[in-house]
Design a protein that fits this description.
single chain, alpha/beta, Rossmann fold, 2 domains, seven-stranded mixed beta sheet, about 20% strand, elongated
């Protein structure tokens, strides 16, 4: 039987395998795999790089490595994703939250204070990342979050319980804002916005592991916006605001949808890469 590997040697083996499969950030991903299996922090891994690991650890590391080599994203392998500094359970029934979506959280937090009471509506909540993150930072806020998928809502409830906000979050199964009543200070959504042509060009990691229902926005990618923008009008307070995430090339067309429905102060916000990513608008007159 070959000798047991040290942490450093095991990390190198994983890194080399990922590099040979042309996986981006092989260096970083190899460290994440080691740390996830061992439970070590980055500092602990570095300090213990000459420590010999057990066969059990090796086996688990190689199992994760092989899943990654087969195209499965790390967040699906780990079963969670970091979002706004919080950990969210994810699975095949929800879209894995992206860093760009944190802009929707920024939109609300930048307009409120920690002691402020307000209500938000999160349409198509998925894992619940947007609504839960806001509630975790604003202890007097309340939210309603909708999703068409009951399995997504079950996951969102687990995440809400994990972050101790379940008492302030109402989860509703439904098609966007259909059949909802009431009025909200903020409405947010990261709807599916990929058009049918682009869907075929998505990476295997996205196409096979993120649910199609959370990606495909109809033939032109705008189907969800047409519904949300129309439904939201009756659910906004007079001072209310709405923010939606968009594809990088959809700024003009989605802004026009808002304009045609009478929304005011329509503003495009860019992500860190300088691409249009979020549209914010005020309630209609």
């Amino acid at each position: 039987m070959s000798k047991n590997l040290t942490l450093s040697e095991l990390t190198r083996v994983v890194r080399t395998a990922l590099q040979d499969h042309a996986i981006d950030d092989a260096e970083l991903e190899s460290r994440f795999i080691i740390e996830n299996v061992t439970g070590l922090t980055s500092a602990e891994r570095i300090l213990g790089e000459n420590e010999v690991v057990s066969r059990n650890i090796e086996t688990k590391v190689f199992e994760m490595m092989n899943r990654r080599l087969d195209g499965e994203p790390l967040d699906h392998i780990f079963g969670y994703k970091e979002f706004y500094g919080l950990k969210f359970e994810i699975n095949r029934h929800v879209l894995s939250p992206r860093p760009e979506t944190e802009m929707l959280v920024d939109f609300i937090l930048s307009r409120t204070t920690p002691d402020q009471a307000f209500e938000i509506l999160d349409l198509g909540t998925g894992s619940g990342a947007i609504a839960i993150t806001v509630l975790a930072s604003r202890p007097k806020a309340k939210a309603i979050a909708t999703d068409i998928c009951p399995k997504a809502l079950s996951l969102a409830r687990r995440n809400a319980d994990l972050h101790n906000v379940v008492s302030r979050l109402s989860l509703v199964q439904g098609y966007w804002a259909e059949a909802l009543s009431g009025s909200f200070d903020f409405i947010v959504s990261n709807p599916p916005y990929i058009d049918a042509h682009t869907m075929n060009k998505l990476s295997r990691e996205v196409r096979e592991y993120d649910p199609t229902i959370a990606l495909l926005g109809g033939e032109d990618g705008l189907a969800a916006y047409r519904i949300i923008i129309k439904q939201a009008k009756a659910l906004m307070k007079s001072h209310g605001k709405i923010a939606v995430e968009i594809g990088f090339d959809q700024g003009e067309t989605v802004s026009l949808l808002f304009k045609n429905q009478g929304y005011q102060n329509i503003t495009l916000k860019k992500d860190l890469a300088g691409r249009d990513r979020v549209i914010v608008a005020d309630a209609t007159d």
